[in-house]
Design brief:
Strand content: 15-25%
Low-confidence stretches: none
Radius of gyration: 22 Å
């Protein structure tokens, strides 16, 4: 009842799953992942035990193919299951039981596995594969989502649309560096779930992405004066010489704290601040 892609980033630091289905909250059931260990998608007649059992096997160094073989061998309902697995290294692996409803099937390659059941046809999995392989220049989450979007455009679930999900893990990649879950977004019941998932990813990247150090601006001089004026206009009185304390207060309430950098300002935060504040003329500079 689902199509999904399980994948590993080219540098091996990220693992993720993207999924869409004409099924309520597929993102709550299908994906499982552990940073620098691997990722799993369980679907068709879902076996939730595959997620912890499969990750436990991956932690011991079992290959993706070995995990698939071990899980389905021990499952008397394996002919009704579908499964995709990617390990920390090596090729992915996929399984489609012979009693999964058609069209059903999967493909796998180095660091990825794509699969689906109750699809409009094999072109859905082909689109997942081709878009994933062609997307090496994209950031990992956007690459996963691009593949999902291509699978839907190729026909997707033949019963229609309902839910979608995206899970990405990276060591220390979670909020504040205190966990490994970098992205965990779900659209549980929506007429256009993949488009809505794309929107949510954009919001997530705005709020929780850490800034590129090369783009940070020194919070000094005319820029510091401007930022202080904007913050003051928003009700956060700021010292034009040292607006950082007020900036931290404002950014925390705007959920932008992950984008802060001592003594500097992220252009994304600056743009958000400029858009939020009443019009404040920029400070004049000498000609």
């Amino acid at each position: 009842m689902t199509f999904s892609l399980v994948a590993r980033s080219d540098d091996g630091r990220l693992h993720g799953i993207v999924v869409a289905s004409r099924f309520l909250a597929a993102g709550a059931l299908v994906p499982g992942a552990a940073a620098e260990v691997g990722a799993i998608a369980t679907q068709a007649h879902v076996n939730l035990a595959y997620r912890p059992q499969g990750l436990a096997l991956l932690r011991t160094g079992v290959s993706a193919a070995g995990v698939v073989a071990g899980l389905v061998a021990a499952d008397p309902e394996r002919d009704h299951r579908q499964l995709g697995v990617v390990a920390a290294t090596g090729p992915g692996a996929t399984w489609t039981g012979e009693h999964c409803r058609g069209w059903a099937g999967g493909q796998a390659g180095d660091g990825w596995a794509a699969q689906g059941n109750i699809l409009t046809g094999p072109q859905v999995v082909d689109a997942l594969r081709d878009t994933w392989l062609a997307g090496a220049d994209l950031p990992f989450p956007q690459r996963l989502l691009a593949a999902l979007r291509a699978g839907e455009a190729a026909g997707g679930d033949r019963r229609g649309r309902q839910s979608a999900g995206l899970l990405v893990v990276r060591r220390g990649g979670g909020y504040g560096g205190t966990g490994d879950v970098m992205i965990d977004l779900r659209v549980d019941d929506h007429p256009d779930p993949v488009t809505e998932l794309d929107r949510l990813l954009g919001v997530h990247m705005l709020l929780f992405s850490r800034p590129d150090p090369a783009t940070l601006l020194d919070l000094t001089g005319a820029l510091a004066v401007e930022v202080a004026g904007l913050l003051t206009a928003l009700g956060y009185p700021a010292d034009p010489a040292e607006p950082e304390d007020a900036l931290v207060d404002w950014a925390g309430l705007e959920n932008l704290e992950e984008r802060l950098a001592p003594g500097r300002i992220d252009p994304v935060v600056l743009a958000h601040l400029r858009a939020a504040a009443p019009h404040v003329p920029a400070p004049r500079t000498a000609a």
